[in-house]
Write a structure and sequence with these properties.
Elements (H helix, E strand, L loop, with lengths): L1 E12 L6 E13 L3 E5 L6 H9 L6 E6 L2 E2 L5 H10 E4 L3 H4 L6 H12 L7 H11 L16 H13 L5 E5 L7 H18 L2 E6 L2 H7 L2 E6 L2 E7 H6 L4 H8 L52 E2 L5 E2 L7
Parallel strand pairs: 3-8, 3-9, 6-7, 7-8
Antiparallel strand pairs: 1-2, 1-4, 4-5, 9-10, 10-12, 11-12
Length: about 325
């Protein structure tokens, strides 16, 4: 069983101007069961849009997302309910993702009741078990979200996502809104849950250090396209795309890098307007190794090895 993303494109039309924004441009990825894919890139690169498409919250303009040999965008009430039980999304801000008028226990038992995964007389017991899974005591079930700390709220969000017994968990910036002191605790919790429950993860972040910590494979995105992908060691220790190198150069701790000489200088300029993308490679105006051809030709992913791909013909492979 695996997640297969095939040529996914997502376009948004701005009614006021009649222009079209290409949030995703031909994204293709395959994630084996039980593995973690990390997706990294600057704000606006399409990470969260991809998460919403994979989870079924939005339908792709073109392409398909297949989980367990079933296309996620298929219609039908029973299929949608089954799909949502298998694929769950944990959002960045736990406070806004939880109902402020609903007690913690109620938010979890609601999921259990909708999917009818346990007998009615054991719903409370299962709810308390889920709280225990994420390191919370059962007495917190009677509190409202505003009565919890940020770390506790995110643990509740994770417990709520686990209530439907999913096989794929999409984690969209799950620790970026938390205090630094609790980020490591939540990250360790996620790693422990993956092992205990056999989950498949998609971990989305702008922080390459966090992505490296939890991921088996890493995809680097820029303006809706994949510019480099490979296992975490290849991406961190042998980055090939100049954008990947710039992201690594921005990391506070360079001690994990195999060869510091491969790092690029800090990126110059701003991300182009997605409604008015430049011709050729979208990164060429900010790229330190761009040549004339980069402004006219759109680069395709080049196979460096069986697991490492880069969308840059000028990269020193």
């Amino acid at each position: 069983m695996s997640l297969v993303i095939e040529g996914v494109e997502k376009q948004y039309k701005i009614m006021a101007t009649g222009t079209t924004i290409n949030a995703l441009n031909g994204v293709s990825i395959e994630i084996p069961k039980g593995k973690t894919l990390g997706i990294v890139g600057e704000s606006g690169c399409g990470k969260s849009t991809l998460a919403r498409v994979i989870s079924g919250l939005e339908k792709p303009t073109h392409g398909s997302v297949i989980w367990d040999d079933k296309t996620i965008s298929d219609k039908g009430r029973n299929h949608i309910r089954s799909r949502h039980s298998q694929v769950q999304l944990v959002f960045q801000d736990p406070y806004s993702s939880l109902n402020p008028r609903q007690k913690v226990g109620e938010s979890i038992t609601e999921v259990l009741s909708v999917y009818k995964l346990v007998p009615k007389d054991t719903v409370t017991e299962r709810m308390e078990e889920l709280l225990s899974f994420v390191g919370l005591t059962s007495d917190l079930a009677h509190r409202y979200p505003h009565q919890l700390s940020g770390g506790q709220r995110q643990r509740v969000s994770i417990a709520r996502a686990l209530a439907s017994e999913p096989e794929l968990l999409i984690l969209d910036e799950p620790v970026s809104a938390l205090d630094v002191s609790v980020r490591a605790e939540v990250m360790n919790l996620l790693i422990d849950l993956r092992t205990r429950l056999g989950l498949t993860y998609i971990f989305i972040s702008h922080d390459l250090g966090m992505v490296r910590y939890i991921s088996d494979f890493i995809v680097v995105m820029y303006l809706g396209k994949i510019v480099e992908q490979g296992d975490w060691r290849q991406i961190i220790e042998r980055p090939l795309h100049p954008y990947t190198r710039a992201l690594i150069a921005a990391m506070p701790d360079h001690s994990i890098i195999g060869n510091p000489e491969t790092l690029a200088k800090t990126l110059q300029g701003e991300v182009p307007d997605p409604a008015n993308l430049p011709k050729g490679c979208a990164f060429h105006a900010r790229c330190p190794i761009a040549v004339d051809a980069c402004s006219t030709h759109i680069p395709l992913l080049i196979e460096v090895s069986s697991t490492h791909y880069v969308a840059c013909p000028e990269a020193k492979i």
